[in-house]
Amino acid sequence: MADMPDVSAPAAAPPASSRIRPSTWAVVLAACTGQFLVVLDVSVVNVALPSMRADLGLSAVGLQWVVNAYSIAFAGFMLLGGRAADIYGRKLMFLVGLGLFTAASLAGGLAQEGWQLLAARAAQGLGAAVLA
């Protein structure tokens, strides 16, 4: 019976559970917040469409473009944002995307003409794609 392994020996104890550092939680919170902003921005604009129509004089087609400019830019640049993150680093591209998204949100809020709002929404979509 020398060929049989000795199973009576106790198994090695697993290493002590390592605690997750607070900085790790900060990174997770920042990533979740960024994704929440991206998803929220797709749908929250629908609430403001009647005000946009009245204040900026947008037609029904223009209002559709307010929604679609973001979605098309977001979908179109998603792969480019991922590739840029592979090349330049995820942290840098997350911050670049967040900065672009924030600046475009401010520009959209300050828009005085319909075309300005559409350009800002497209820039928001680009920022969201890089951020995501």
Automatic annotation (TrEMBL):
The chain crosses the membrane at residues 25-49, 61-80, 92-111. It is found in: Cell membrane. It comes from the Bacteria. This is MFS transporter. Keywords: Antibiotic resistance, Cell membrane, Membrane, Transmembrane, Transmembrane helix, Transport. Residues 27-132 form the Major facilitator superfamily (MFS) profile domain. PANTHER family: BLR6921 PROTEIN, MAJOR FACILITATOR SUPERFAMILY MULTIDRUG TRANSPORTER MFSC. GO terms for cellular component: plasma membrane. GO terms for molecular function: transmembrane transporter activity. PROSITE patterns: MFS (PS50850), SUGAR_TRANSPORT_1 (PS00216). Pfam families: MFS_1. Its main location: membrane. It comes from Streptomyces parvus. One of its GO terms (biological process) is response to antibiotic. It is a multi-pass membrane protein.
